[in-house]
Amino acid sequence: MTRKQRRLYFVLLGMLALGAAVALVLSAISDSLVYFYSPTDITTQRIPEGRRMRVGGLVEQGSVTKDGKLVAFRITDLTNTVPVAYTGILPDLFREGQGVVVEGRVETDGQFHASEVLAKHDEKYMPKEVADALKKSGQWNDGKPK
Amino acid sequence: MIAEIGHFALVLALCVALVQAVVPLVGAKRGLTNWMAVAGPASALQFLFIVMAFGALMHAYVTSDFSLVNVASNSHTEKPMLYKVAGVWGNHEGSLLLWVTILAVFGFAVTLFGGNLPPGLKSRALAVQAMIAVGFLSFILLTSNPFARLDPPPMDGNGLNPILQDPGLAFHPPMLYLGYVGFSMAFSFAIAALLEGRVDAAWARWVRPWTLAAWIFLTCGIVLGSWWAYYTLGWGGWWYWDPVENASFMPWLAGTALLHSAVVVEKRDALKSWTILLAIVAFGFSLLGTFLVRSGVLTSVHAFATDPARGAFVLLLLVLAVGGSLTLYALRAPAMKMGGLFSPISREGSLLLNNVLMATGAATVLLGTLYPLIADALNLGKVSVGPPFFNAVFLPLMVPMVVVMAVAPMLSWKRGDVAGILGRLKLVAGLTLAVALLVWFLQGGSAGPWWSIGGFALATWLGLGTLTDFAQRIRLFADPAGVPVRLRLLPNSAWGMILAHFGLAVFIVGLTASSAWTTEHIQTQQIGESVDVAGYSVTLTGVETVPGPNYSASRATFEIAKGGSVIAHMQPEKRTYRMPPRPTTTAAIRSGITGDLYVVIGDADPKGGYVTRLYFNPCIPWLWAGGALLVLGGLVSLSDRRHRIGAPARAAARKVPA
Prior knowledge:
Chain A has helices at residues 3-32, 39-44, 128-136, and strands spanning 33-37, 53-59, 65-67, 70-76, 81-87, 99-106, 112-117, 140-141, 144-145. Chain A is of the alpha+beta class. In chain A, strands 2-4-5-7-6 form a five-stranded mixed barrel. In chain A, strands 8-9 form a two-stranded antiparallel ribbon. In chain A, strand 6 (99-106) and strand 7 form a beta hairpin. Chain A is elongated, with a radius of gyration of 21 Å. Chain B is an alpha+beta fold. Among the domains of chain B are: 1-160, Four Helix Bundle (Hemerythrin (Met), subunit A), CATH 1.20.120; 404-517 and 622-630, no CATH class; 520-620, no CATH class. Chain B has 22 helices and eleven strands. In chain B, helix 9 (201-232) packs antiparallel against helix 10, helix 11 (272-295) runs antiparallel to helix 12 (308-332) and helix 13 packs antiparallel against helix 14 (387-407). The longest helix of chain B is centred in the first third of the chain and has 32 residues, at 201-232. Chain B is globular and about 80 Å long. Strand 1 of chain A pairs antiparallel with strand 1 of chain B.
């Protein structure tokens, strides 16, 4: 095998791998992207039923109710709120008044069912999307919710 | 006082690093021996100062000196000693100090062990190492001083985030950093080689053990982190394709590729510019990992509070290091002469194929990890890319890689004989097919996903293929009498390869089984109530409150019965720490070769009973065993005599038959 042939082999191999990767990415990306909505987006826009999405904001004070493994709470950006239903054990750092991101979908009953409540390791942490959602609703002040 | 000495030592280290970054480089360019010789003592001095600073911070933590902001906000007198020590790197400032400490250790190691390195290469590499140190030391001194004072000092500290108070996590950051920073060695030597315009077997022989050492630490760090996430976060999973996890996985992929391509440079004098590129990319990914974790630009389940100014600084370092080195690469790499020729079907060819696949895999992980940032910048909306993307894109790319992995070690260099090897693998192929059919039969068509068949088949193919290679190397069947001698003669690097490849096969079993067949039960359980989980009867027998050193826990007791007889008691806890006042979950896990029974206790239900979460996670111990085999393989390979006697002199290296 000459030098030129080897270079050709190298290039072909690279293109083949990249081509396969691009094909896989294109086929997977539209189904697996999860869009983020703020409570205001959910209230004001028409949300496609059954599509996976993330919703973030603050857990509204006094909104958490538990019935065995069923948990219900509301997420707020201090302008609008979204009721969320969740089944399971909440992460340790979940509490009222704190930033939270949930992932799930709007089911046929019109309610948002979370399949995951994203846990944080640090209570000082505010998810970036939540901070942005609060900024958009005008409820963000000096790096903190008003 | 000691803190001030620490701070001052850091400033001195920065000054020394500045000298070390410039003088040896000029010396190497102009051929001034005494200028080049500055590199050695400078790296020793830099090491001394940085270790002093690290020691000072350690002292502050151990003695609970709350007049330091860093100690006051991250430590507490009540904390056990292990976590006082681990607390040093359990925060942003301290973890960066650990980062540069490790960098200094590696730099000093070049001076200590690099006696037989060509002086030009050594001084240039040490200069590059010092440039990295300058970047990170100024980062620490300008934005994240761990020695900042607090006046008046508080009576007690805020305590370490309880979720970090765990032996698994105490050692996870140092391991990960040893891996990240270890790749700086390959990087420095790659840049030095580009400056010199020469890459040869001596270069590869020097870079290989360091890359291997870094890879071992990184593997160990990732496995520890994964294990920690599995047993402390209480969700029964061990990998989530989260940005912070990907941040450690990308350098691992690039490092693994580098490890293999460096072999080709050493043995066959080929793939040189590709290897240099991988060395740059592996360290670039390490910097990117540091940036992603420290800047908080991506929402992660593992995110910690962050400061945007710091993120910007690391980004600047990243752009300078990666941009600069890639520019240098573009200018100098074409001059790198290609070495030995080989056919696509040869050991080099298959190593290259796997390199390309691994690099492509790393690229897709990079794309998926950064896509939310790109989409946000282009106003395409706020998105997150989750496990479905990575599973659908990354895993298929790894399938051909694993298939080739079983064959590649049997191929000879230069030109291989595929037909002959496939002939030798006939039995393995048959057994693979049998396993696939068995899994298909056991699943009964609908009890599991179709890909689990493929996963088990791949694991069988790789595992048995590796064993076949091993058996042939020692001629187990052809000449059983000579086996003990050949076992002793088999080089440690070959043992390492066999252990690591077999480890990956074991890992794939765990990965497939735990992803395909996990069962989860969430319910409210009354005291005395039983739930059936994968053939076990799990009964909640009671919940009591017990005190811990710096927390109090409500501890539940579950009685586990199988076939009517009690086989074990399990005690998961929900702990509430005193400082900071925060709850954590401690799962109880009963491991067996077929899988883990995993029990989590939740809150009490006002109507009586407790919310409980019970899992059966099949084959999870296989994951840890596979990871341990990878690390063991790395260690055994590192102990190879040829590494210990160090890099051969350049003249001798040329005598390697082409």
